[in-house]
Amino acid sequence: MSTHHYDVIIIGTGAGGSTLAHRLAPSGKKILILERGGFLPREKENWDFSQVLQRRRYRTTERWLDKQGKTLHPDTGYYVGGNTKVYGGVLFRLREQDFETVYHYGGVSPQWPLSYQDLEPYYTQAEKLYQVHGQHGLDPTEPKRSEPYPLPPVQHERRVQEIHEQLKYQGLHPFYLPLAIQLDPGDRTLSTCIRCNTCDGFPCLLQAKSDAEVTCIRPSLAYDNVTLRTNTEVVRLQTSPSGQEVTGIEVKQGDQHQHFSGDIVVVSCGAINSAALLLRSANEQHPYGLANRSNQVGRNLMKHQHGVILNLTHRLNLTVFQKTLAINDFYWGEPEFNYPMGHVQLLGKVNKEAIALEASKLIPGFVLAGVASHSSDWLVTSEDLPDPKNRVRLKNNQIVLDYTTNNTKAFDRLMKRWLVILKQINAQDAIVPYSLSFYKRMSLERVAHQVGTCRFGRDPNTSVLDPNCRTHDIQNLYVVDGSFFPSSAAVNPSLTIMAIALRVGDHLLERLQSSSGHA
After folding, report:
1. Taking residues 420-448, what's their average pLDDT?
2. What's the CA angle centered on 507, arms 513 and 283, to 5 degrees?
3. What is the rounded distance in angstroms from the CA atom of residue 95 to the CA atom of residue 490?
4. Separation in Å, CA 299 to CA 109, 381, 385, 393, 446
């Protein structure tokens, strides 16, 4: 047997690949993890607004194209831990109904091949693994749980608590965001997390964010059977003459090319890059890309519709750690609109550097600082729907995103509804009400919630993966990241990716225990 042969090879270390590696590590099986980037450096710049936001220090220099052929600078990075290194740590379960057929004003979200009940035990395990803080019983749309959150909720700071009470006065149901951070609220002297203002969108210098590297990769490397190769980009996958098995993985380290093989190969590069790798690996047996008999690889790209609202009032907002509150009252619509609308949550607190990205260069810094100190900052999320025309494809080996926004009426309605509510709550405690909001729809470059490009299902003619995330066409090839989503729902997808990774991990452990490894 070649010295480069492994029982399992996992390509990518984001939420899916890292969680799967953590599940498999104690098995004793020979596991290779390949990551195209290195470890994100721990340096003072981790917390530097100008470096992170303005100079995009931790984002890739890679360029993609949009459907018009215009250049995109994607808001993504290649490091051990993937994009969880800079995520906000918000880990939601999908709603029970999200797994069913859902009718939207703009179309239909299809039923999943699994139910919420199938995934519930793995949601519970993922919340424990990623140390999620939360409180059950406040969110009117939350699904049933077999156990409470493993840790108490992250409490609001003073101004956020005031907003919480004002929203309740309006008859709404604000709740604590489920957050994956290593915070000990009982004894801050023992807490790794210090509740700083550089969490959402930033790497954590203290490694206090429960990201995939800290939570899963580093513990996995304590096992002698687990090997991690960084700065190793997978160029293509090779198959047997029959096309039914991946027999080789070609990688590039600098100018050097190497080959590895594995009994089981798992692609976990993120929905966009996983689809690109399968397409890039086309061969005689798979002329349109690996596992693409259904012509669905790369199709049905979803990334959510996102809008940002900066709400400016007379009230001083000295909040440091702002991302603690959310609203789902309009998730399934409202009395005059019987279709899903979406989800609202606070963002990390902006400062003058963040506002400067969108403001005129002529506005002085002290004005921007004043705006930031009187604002509350919101993220509005609506579901985008699966559309085979929204796809990842390759042009001269460069990634192209053919994407047209859909289901916009629901998103626009939610944005307008939230602007009205902000005016209402700001009028509650002011003799002369003052509220001014600036809002913006996020561009295609924002691909943090990318899902759907290799959907799973039971019919190989309409899906790429089976319910265990194995490709229908290739017996030893799996895809474990956001690619499997048949629909995007309207909450952050990370926890669902982690839960599926744990479920696939159990499936693979059973498979590996069989005599041949190919059962």
Report:
1. 84
2. 95
3. 9
4. 15, 21, 12, 9, 18
Banded model confidence at residue 205, pLDDT cuts 50, 70, 90: very high
Full-model pTM:
0.96
- Please list, residue by residue across 413-450, b when 16 or more beta carbons sit within 10 angstroms of its beta carbon and e when fewer do: bbbebbbebbbebbeeeeeeeebebeeeebebebbbbb
Q: Mean pLDDT throughout 102-111?
A: 98
Res 196: pLDDT: 94
Q: Which two tokens stand for residue 517?
A: 């490894």
Asked if 492 contacts 449 with a C-beta cutoff of 8 angstroms, the reply is yes
- The whole-number pLDDT of residue 429 equals 64
Q: Cα–Cα distance between 33 and 362 in angstroms, integer?
A: 48
Task: Strands of 271-387 (E only): list them.
Answer: 305-313, 325-327, 343-346, 375-382
Residue 431, pLDDT score: 56
Phi-psi region at 452: left, alpha or beta (left = phi > 0; alpha = psi -120 to 50):
left
For residue 242, count CB atoms less than 10 angstroms from its CB and return exposed for 0-12, middle for 13-18, buried for 19 or more.
Answer: exposed
Please, what is the average pLDDT of the chain? 94
